[in-house]
Structures are given as C-alpha cells and as structure tokens.
Amino acid sequence: MPNKLIFRIVAGTLLALTIVSSLQAQQLTMAPGTTLPAPPAAPPVNALSGAITAYGEGKFQQAADMFKPEEGANGVAAGVVCELFVRKLLPPDDERGSAACEYATKAGDPNGLVWRALAGRNGYATLGIAVTETASLGYLAQAAEMDYAPAQGQLCEHFYTRKNFQQALPFCKYAGGRGIADALYYFAQMTLEGKGVVQDFRKGTDILLLSAQLRSALALTKLAELSRDGATGIPKNPVKAYAWILLASSADPNSKTIAAEKQALARNLSESKIAAAQANAAAWPLVRPSSRRDLAP
Amino acid sequence: MTSTEEDIVSELEHSKAEPPAPPSPVVTCDLEATLPFTPAEGKPVPDAAPPEAARVIPPTPAPEDMYLQGMAFLKGVGAARNESMAIARFLDASDLGHAEAAFKAALMYFNGVGITRNVDEAQGLAKRCLELGPSSALIQRYCKELTEGSIGTENVRRLLEQDEETILQSDVQLAQKKKATTLVLAAAALTVLFAGMGAYFYFSTQDRLDLPSAAGIASVIPPEELAQAKKDSLAAIASLRAEAAGAVQASGDAAPTRTTDF
Q1: A210 and B214: CB-CB below 8 Å?
Q2: What percent of chain B has pLDDT over 70?
C-alpha cells in the first residue's frame, strides 16, 4: 500500500474522531436540559416580494438594494434594475446597469428587453450600451411576442413618431386596449387626425379623455392645447386649459414643456379663475393605471 | 219793399176785398139751470170744505224709511240727486237710532259730501254707529276704522258710491286679487331663484373638466377589435424579427451565443 494512501486514511480518521469528540464535548459541557440550537429557518419562497413592493411604492434605491443579491440570477430583478438605471432613477453605475440589462435580456425578461431596447435611444449612452435601431426593434418585438403590453406600446410610439400610421395602428390599438396610457393617446391622435383610421372627433376625444384618466401626460397636455385654442369640437376655455395643464404637470413633474405652458396659461387668468381651475383639476377622477407588469418572480 | 211789408200789404188788400161778416147772434145762458140747488130751496149750496175735526197729523216716518229716503237722495233714485237732503235724512235717522244711517252720515261728513267736511263729526257719528250696533260686520268694521282714523278718503268715497253687497263682492275680489298677486309674486320669486341657481350651476360647471362619454376602454376598443389588433400586431412582430435578424446577419456580426439574441 502506498504511503500517501495510508497517510490519507489516518488523517481522515483522526479528523473524524476530532469532530465527533468535539461534538461530544460540547454536549457534555452544556448544562443539563439544554438542547442544541435549532437550525436556521428556511428562506421565504418569495425573496423578492419586499423589493417589488418598494419598487411599486417608488422607493427605487431601497428596491435596488433589495434586488442586488438576486440581479445576477433572477431575470425579473435584473430587468427592474436595468430599468432603474436606464431611467436614471439611481445614481450612475454603468457597470452594474449594463450587467443587469445584459442578464435580463439573456434571461428573456420582457421588462429587461424593453429597457435594453430603450437604452439605445434617447441618449441613454451612460450605460455604455450601444443598441442600433434595428436591434432595439428586435428587443421590443421579442418582448411584444411574449404579450408584454408596454413593449407593444413602445412599438406604437416608434411607428407613430415616424409617421408610419398603418404599422403603428395595431400596436397602438392592442396596447391601448390593454390600458397602456400613451398608446391610447396615440390611438386618439390617429382617430382625431384621421390617420390610419376614419376620422372621428367624438370618438377621438373620448379616447383622449380615457388616456388622460390613465395619467398620460401627453393626453393631458393635448387636452390643455385643445381647450386653449378651441379645436376638434372642444370649445375654447382658458380655465379648463389651465386645469388640464395642472394635471399634466402632476403626471410629469420633470417636463419643462409642461411647466412653460403652465406659466403661459396662468398669466392670462385671474386668481379666482386659477383657484377654480385648481379645484376642478382636483375633483377630476383619475383612474389608477394598470400595473406595468406583473412582477411576480 | 221787404217780404214783411209785402205780407202786410197783401193782407190789407184782402181784407178790403171781402165784405165784412155779419155779427154773430147773441147767445143767452140760463144760469139758473146750472145752479146746484133747486129754485125751490132758494139757497145755493156752498163750496165743500174739510171738517176741522178730521185733521190727522202724519206719523213720524220710521228711521228705516228716513234712511231709505236718504239713500234715494244720495243715489238719485226716484228723486233728483241731492246730497244735502241725503245727509239730512241720514242724520234724522241716526237720531232715531239707525246705525247704518249714522254710518252713511259719518262717511259724508268725512269726505265733505253734501256738507262741510268735519272729521271730528264723522268720528262722532261712527262712534254712534258702533254704539247702535250695525247689523253688518262690514259696516261695523268701517265704523271702527273711521273712529280710529285708519281709513282714507278714497275708500270712503267708494263706500258712499257702492252698496254693501257690491263692497262685499269687491272685497272678495280684492282678496282674490291679492291672493293671485301673492301667488304670482311667489312664482316669480321661485323662477328667479331657480334661474339664478341654474345660472350659477351653469357658470360654475361650464369650467368643469369633461369626462369621457364612453363607459371605458372596452367601449372604444371592443373585444373583437382588440383580438384583431393582437393578430395584426403578432404578424407585424414576426416580420420585424425577420428584418432584425437579417440586418444582424448582413452586418457580419458573430452568430449569437445567447438564446435571447434574435
């Protein structure tokens, strides 16, 4: 028998004896009646529920911290983290952001796919993600194929802004029908302007109002413009216009366009009319928009 | 020559032409035949004279009659209208205890009809009317108003000119008119109130933000349209993915290693 083998057997035996004896010693030194500590409780099945709740409440940093341990292994977590970095809701961290987006795309998370697609647009170059337009469309198409409504909405916006109304129409209609506010707005615009569909002011205005109720800043701004100028059957009413723009500014507080329009409208109104507009805006029933996605892991 | 002179001349000529008419025969009258007594009696029958023993003093007219006479003089019924005579009759009737006559006299004194105006006298007579106790509640009311001085000359004039029944009727009509006026005013006030409320609500609501007339998204994008849109979008997605895959291949990129790569 080789010497190495003998040595290993002896060492292993000694090691085992040491462990057993130490355990026995532990038991002997324990006070009578004391039992061994219970093993730690099994981790909860839904470890991400707290993070999802924080995300839903707008506590993005907290959500990101809670997602961190999972973002390398869970597509949902990675997708949300990718989104938070692309939207610049977290302090810049290109490495973490791009890694999250990569993983989310790899895992096939639809939210991650959408934000990966958007990362290549609107100047989201901080993450160092270079996405061509075609690739971006591909990601969106992949997410849309999974019946992910926000992806449909993004395709709607993509084709509408490029005035490809025929191609935009099914995406806008389908996403709008599933409660995506901005898609509903684009569908309203097409109906009001008769692009891709038969022009219908009444129906278009109704769709615009439905979109506004879902807190679409675009729809609320459009309603403010129509009330300011008096168009498509909506009578001119500066008080209403101001009320609409107040709602738009609450839907998108960071928009400089909306802030400028709000100032311009306020200049022509007396204090009592501004107060009336504020009261009317506060009284207008907003509908809680449908959740962006089901974030159950 | 004037026409008158011509007439005179023609008459003279005419009278000259005709012979004078013979004198008419004397007619004698047999006065004896006409005497009321026979010649045998020899004494004419003297004229008939009323016997002094049968002279009757006419009775004092009842107060009611005096009152009615006064009314006749006042209204000019059966006699010429004479307000002075009327008040005289009323005063006489009043002295005899006729309450309504005292009332009428009071009215005439109050307005100076048929007599010099004297409000104090009018009030005195009105008081007498109340003491005598008029049969009509209306007269009692007006006598009271006269004593209190709460009646005007116009109403007194109306009372003098109209009879009680007419006054009652006109009072009823007046009351009905007042009621109708009140109703009309109330209706007008309510109309103004509601119009004001309507105007308030209109002007306060015209600035209210519009709500969609559609019941929800499903009413503007019905399920069948949604299903068709889904089908069309899936078809578009397939062609997008094909285009994207073709673009990647054409750019010469390495074959994708990740399953998610298109």
Answers
A1: yes
A2: 69
